[in-house]
Write a structure and sequence with these properties.
Elements lengths: L3 E4 L3 H14 L2 E6 L7 H5 L2 E4 L12 H10 L4 E3 L9 H9 L3 E2 L4 H8 L1 H7 L17 E5 L9 E3 L5 H16 L4 E5 L5 E9 L5 E8 L3 E2 L2 E2 L1 E4 L6 H17 L4 E10 L2 E8 L6 H8 L3 H9 L14 E8 L1 E2 L5 E2 L2 E3 L1 E3 L5 E4 L5 E3 L6 E9 L2 H14 L1 E3 L5 H8 L2 H4 L7 H9 L5 H20 L20 E9 L2 E8 L16 E6 L18 E6 L3 E8 L5 E3 L5 E6 L3 E6 L2 E9 L4 E5 L6 E5 L15 E3 L4 E6 L8 E2 L4 E7 L2 E6 L4 E6 L6 E2 L4 E7 L7
Parallel strand pairs: 1-2, 1-4, 2-3, 4-5
Antiparallel strand pairs: 6-7, 6-8, 9-10, 9-14, 11-12, 13-16, 14-15, 16-23, 17-18, 19-22, 20-24, 21-23, 25-26, 26-27, 28-29, 28-35, 29-30, 31-32, 32-33, 33-34, 34-35, 36-43, 37-39, 37-42, 38-41, 39-40, 41-43
Length: about 700
Amino acid sequence: MIRTLLVANRGEIACRIFRTCRELGIATVAVYSDADAGALHVREADTAVRLPGAAPADTYLRGDLIVKAAQAAVADAIHPGYGFLSENADFARAVADAGLVWIGPPPEAIDAMASKTRAKELMGVAPLAADAVTEADLPVLVKAASGGGGRGMRVVRELGQLEAELKAAGAEAASAFGDGAVFVEPYVEGGRHVEVQVMADAYGTVWALGTRDCSPQRRHQKVIEEAPAPGLSDATRDTLRELSLRAARATGYLGAGTVEFLVADERVQFLEMNTRLQVEHPVTEAVFGLDLVALQLRIAEGDALPPSPPEPHGHAVEARLYAEDPGRDWAPQTGRLHQLAVPSSVRLDTGYADGDEIGVHYDPMLAKVVAWAPTRAEAVRKLAGALERARVHGPVTNRELLVRSLRHAEFVAGEVDTGFYERHLPELTAAPSGEAEALSAVAAALADVAVRTAGVPPTPPLPETGGKPPDPQIALRARPQTPDGLKISARPAFEDRGLGRSPSYGKGREWGRGTAQRPTRIGAWRNVPSQPQVKRYLGRAEHQVRYWWTRDGGAVLEGHPGVRVLHITPHHVHLEVDGVRRQFEVAAYDDGRVYVDTPNHPSHTLTALPRFPDPTPAHQDPGSLLAPMPGTVVRVADALAEGDRVQAGQPLLWLEAMKMEHRVTAPVSGTLTALHAAPGRQVEVGALLAVVVAHEEEPQP
């Protein structure tokens, strides 16, 4: 029996495994890099062991350090999670050699499938010889022989680009997996990425747990997954099942694994077998009512699977919430995650809690949001609605892209292929209406009114006089008249004070007298508006909100004739917009960011701008190439030097951050006048990398 389990991973998957361990009564051990010292998975574990350093190569990829950590914590088993060392046969052997239980398949099975080229040979599929590719073979896919997650993958559509892409893919694969081997295979246009979850015990029982569709992808990395895969014929499902069982049995598999395919026009092409748990395993759990991590642990303890898996029921959809900007080439984002909350009707798997920092060292995935329902249409609607209502306060995310993707006609019809984002990214990342963001700015300004007026007592009620109450446009003033009474007088709320809002109400009027508990000054002009207030917010555009606020917490807007203020507090604003009541939730943080959430409408992130902006904006030379994301310069184009002539679109250097490689290219044809990047240099967003001066801008001799 496993009593203490170390998870050789981090973030969301470590937290997810710990959850099952707590349910089974198993103690947990985390490992962490210096960058993860305060991470959620460290806080949730019973004990934790430091791996000195920050880079994956120095920490989570050091199998020797992880085995020592397990021994130091007196763990008796290691679960690798996914990524990092999860498909490393040498690590699996080292775990067993140390007398620890390995939660995964035998090293021989990992060896058989870890190399995609060997896996294809085992399944009777031969890759293309790189030096024999012709125009007739195009397009082709260059792919890393080891690893996954889209690293080391390139689509080649022109033969002249093949050599450069082979080199680039090899360099990326070597950096990510320590193995620069790549191969070439046909690239199927319009194909769907479909996979089968398998589970096998030590007694010969192998389950094929239905299908999953993972076609919506960016940079060959999955974004939305669902189970079962929609729209497959019975014959195709049978083929996928039989090929998956064959792959598991051929390798003597044990535990959880995934066999991946490309499906096009009912043709099935084997891609690879992942000898580990997959990111998207929750959709299979939801449909089959299983805990796959619990099954992994029981199989490792020697338990047998029942002869057949349970029957599937309903449909599940999972969306990966990333800290990235899809409209800027999927650039990863960093910073503080102030708040992450989703409705309780869906499942949230995350490695972050409110207030955590999103750093540059690891994958930008914040969370997985999973919805189950009896039918596909209900599950898709449920997930889209939950994401729309989620509060995601922090760096830019792909949340709006996910909502729009789930509601896109192709996705709703179940007709998505791997080219979905290539075709539809511009419409899926288009800016929401300026009017919607302007209303959010109004809500932010009014919430600020409530903050400023918090604690000010309300206007005293009128004494009982039997007279007609004052017009709501009339401001009230209370002042002592006698030791036992008050004199109430009124005058126009908008008398001529330079506001241009002076109705001709005449002079003040009196309503009589009342009594007070003590002869003290109540205050003056409780309802009189302030001088004009202007708040400026920057979202996708700059918004200026002009308003007057009153001492009782009221407000008057300018320039919004169809908007009526109903209710404001520091966090909630109710407006009537053209006769329709709208609710806004407003959260402001000390970094100047303001987040405005409202049901059934896009959320907006605004930055409060200073009242007096800097009149001298920072100067930036034409042709400056700035870092689009924080990261590390991994390489610079061969022999590139200042003074070189470059062509528009020519790759100059490569940045890597959060498991993503970004290529920086020349924006125009011209001369490289400055190069500040060097391999290994850490850069922040906006750091100057290089300057390219267009030919027509060059000084004449």
